[in-house]
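User: Can you write out an input/output pair for a complex, sequences first and structure second?

Assistant: Here is one pair. Inputs:
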Amino acid sequence: MVRPIRPSHGAVVTATSLSLALLATGCDYLSGTGGTSAGRDGAGCEPFAEWADVEGGTVDIYASIRDEEGERMQRAWHDFAECTGINIRYEGSGEFEAQVQVKVDGGNAPDIAFFPQPGLLSRFVESGDALPLPDSVAKRAQEGYPEDWLQYVEHDGKLYGTPLGANVKSFVWYSPGFFEKNGYEIPQTWDDLITLSDTMADDGVKPWCAGIESGEATGWPVTDWLENVMLREHGPEVYDQWIDHEIPFDDPKVTQALDRVGDILRNPDYVNGGHGGVKSIATTSSQVGGLPILDEKCGMYLMGSFYAAQWPEGTEIAEDGDVFAFNLPTIDEEIGTPVLGGGEFAAAFSDRPEVVAVQEYLATADYANNRAQEGAWFSAHKDLDLDALDNPNDRFAAELLRDPDTVFRWDGGDYMPAAVGSGTFWRAMTNWINGSDTEDVLSYVEQSWPKS
Amino acid sequence: MAFDILAELPKLLWLVIAVAAFLAVFGVLLLAVDGGPRTRYDWWQAACFLAPAGILLLTGLVYPVIRTTVLSFHGPGGDTWVGWGNYVWMFTRPEILLVLRNTFLWVIFAPILATATGLVYSVLVDRSRYESIAKSLLFMPMAISFVGASIIWKFVYAFRPANADQIGLLNQLLVWAGGEPRQWLLEGPLNTLLLIVVLIWIQAGFAMVILSAAIKAIPAEIVEAARIDGVNGWQQFWRITLPSIWPTVTVVLITISVQTLKIFDIVRTMTGGQFGTSVIANEMYSQAFRYGQLGHGSALAVFMFLLVIPLVLIQIRNARRTREAQSL
């Protein structure tokens, strides 16, 4: 038998104690590098006076906003962080929707998360992880934002988030120059829209382009189409019932609306300018979908206000520029043109004083204006300075949101349970573009609605 | 961006701390071993050294398996008991049955085709003049990650309308041959087979390298004896080469099968599971993490686990048989 070799006792003791000592000093050093309160009383800090007695500290924010957009957002709250001494640690992730669940379940929840989907936030409200807004934050939210927005984060009479950015998804992008050259008028009713489409088709231009490819999210632009038509054809009340599942997902009204969308999207005479036939919609990326407008290969493209960022550099976005957008016209005079849109809500998972301070600040008009000045952004805040919006398209959208007559509804797909809103709804619409029967795809989604 | 040593200092410190912690744990362990009882010292020593691995296995493997199994009998949030509900859901929903069918297609085609390609290739280039170059060519895709390979192949299958310039190789070939460009990734079940091609492209190199080594290990006497008996190439392959390397072929087949069962990256990168191409691993991730349906996700995970078990058993049995053969 082999006798086990024993390590020398002295060497072991030295190695162990040395590494333990190293461990201890290292941890000391790191815990000593907390938030510095430099610049706290510096010049330019007057707007943040009300947070003067916050003790600094660190606030973790987690969201899906990345790259350039993420940096602009961080610049917008930079002064606030400097002056209050609160260290805001921001992390943007492309996997936000899946990872935020993992973080919360793992006991590693961020202090604040920005949710683009009120439905996802509801999941955390139900599990008790997300905290209701403290009164000071709720008050600001109610003063700053319309009820149409806050209803999506209200549970049992309490608010769970403050709106941040906004987007409008009822936009139809077009080329003003192309319209003028051919004498096309911006349609005011759905019938006008169809007449215009026919005229374009007769003139030898495909009136519509579309692209719905977006990785695992493929199909979402069609859900915007359907939601817009649902809103215009049946009105906001029926729309609310539909997204709350008070009427079945495959109600005859929905079939009617999807068939109306099909009159455009599944009409080979109308689509898909510059990309191919009807089925090319499924493999054309939503980001390049509208670009043929610039080459006059297609007339119109329904896509959110955020599409402004996709035009190539040098494209002038203005009412008399290269591209601009109009609000998808009305179907029923009595209902008018409700606006479909989205954005983010800031919700908190902890209530330390510094976290509350950040929440309060994010709900102010000051933050909204700072963020707007960084460019390519607007919100539904009532006191947002419209002159700070550099882009005529953003201004148009912000004015639309602010108009007291505007009925606003959140993108239903972001509100429905995730299994539907970011799952079967997208899949069903992709299959529908690929030729599946309207009633079949709608009943497929209805079947998949989680039973709770 | 410049590397600022001061800004990165905390990270470096974490690194040092992690290494120190590792050493400390090790030191404590050695001390414990050292201070053990004099009697049955070797038993004590084994227990101490096996304990860390044992604990990690328990917490990282055994516990998750049990918890996933328990979750698969619960509802979306993991708190309501639903019995076999999730499994019933799995085998009745048409879209999940499609997922199971796709996984079945993958497991049938990918391992067999990848192994066959690797085998034929290694036999053909064996002892030829350019063997090493030829082998590196097939082996190279192994160095590309699944995601990278998927992006490359997405370009190969790319579609542009008939009147525009094609950017996809496959459609360009089709156009040159006088055909109309097609949207390859749109039509099932062809699209699943086209995704399988990507895995074969990556794995054929692996199969080729292993099988080629096995072919070279066939005793020269056997081959010579066969030659003297006057076999032709065809007979040599079926009667000599294949039977001699059969154990290796099964190992390669099973390794690729297990890889195929858990295939995720290719599907997620190329189609995101759309157009009827989803597979079990992709659907499991979507259900559990994107849709918040923990029960559904867990049931799919358990099912996948059950599918892998027989393959692992075969593998273990083979390994044991080889060991017995060697010890004779």
